[in-house]
Every structure is written in C-alpha cells, then in structure tokens.
Design goal:
Elements (H helix, E strand, L loop, with lengths): L1 H11 L3 H5 L48 H41 L2 H14 L5
Length: 130
C-alpha cells in the first residue's frame, strides 16, 4: 500500500513548467512576469539567456510571399464562380430582359405610333382624352 501511494504521488506531481508559473508560448520556457525578465543584463539582448531552445527563421529577403498566387487565384476564381453562378446569373438575366422590354415599350409608347395606339385604345374603352 505504501509503495502504491508513493507511485501515485510520483505520477500525480505537477510538472516543472506548471510549478514555475506557466509556459512562454513562443519559446516554451517561463521567463517571469511581463517586464520582469529585462532588468537583469546577462546577455547583449537584455535578459536571461534561454538554454535548450532552438528557434529557426527565414530572412525576409529570402522569402517569396507571392509564390503560387497567380495560379491559385485563377483556379480559386473558377471554382468559386462555378459554385455561385446559379445564384446570381438567372436574376441578372431576368432583370436585363425586363429592363430591355421596358425601355423598348417606353420608346414605342412615346413615339407617334404608340401615342396613336394608346389614343385608339382609350377611345375603344369609352374614355375621352382632351
């Protein structure tokens, strides 16, 4: 029983980062509260050196931020248009046809022949146009 309790205590003990107050998400080690790690000048950058941590980065002039942009843009526009065209094309075609009919009808009704047709239609209904 004593051996089981010792083993249980060993398994359930808190980890070192948890005891030290938490992890620095970027570097993985706790450096102290915000602003606390800069007051001790132990290295040229101001602060305690971290041991056992390797950080890799790429120089900005070695990066190619627009790599594949043109290729991805062409195929992405095609894919998105193919998926959305039936939501906007039929209403646009319908609106165009209605506007085209309305403009032609308006031009006809404001022409000499259209005015005469409207006059005769009103005459047939028994209305007078003065």
């Amino acid at each position: 029983m004593r051996q089981t309790a010792a083993r249980l205590a060993e398994v359930l003990r808190p980890t070192l980062p948890r005891r030290s107050g938490g992890l620095d998400p970027k570097h993985g080690k706790y450096m102290g509260p915000w602003g606390d790690f800069g007051h001790i000048q132990l290295n040229s950058r101001g602060g305690r050196p971290q041991k056992g941590i390797t950080s890799y980065s790429l120089s900005p002039n070695r990066q190619n931020p627009l790599a594949g942009t043109l290729h991805a843009a062409i195929f992405n526009v095609y894919r998105r248009t193919k998926n959305q065209i039936w939501y906007w094309l039929p209403p646009m075609v319908g609106a165009y046809l209605i506007m085209d009919w309305a403009e032609k009808r308006n031009q006809y009704l404001n022409s000499k022949a259209g005015r005469m047709e409207e006059f005769y239609r009103l005459q047939a209904q028994g209305g007078d146009e003065d």
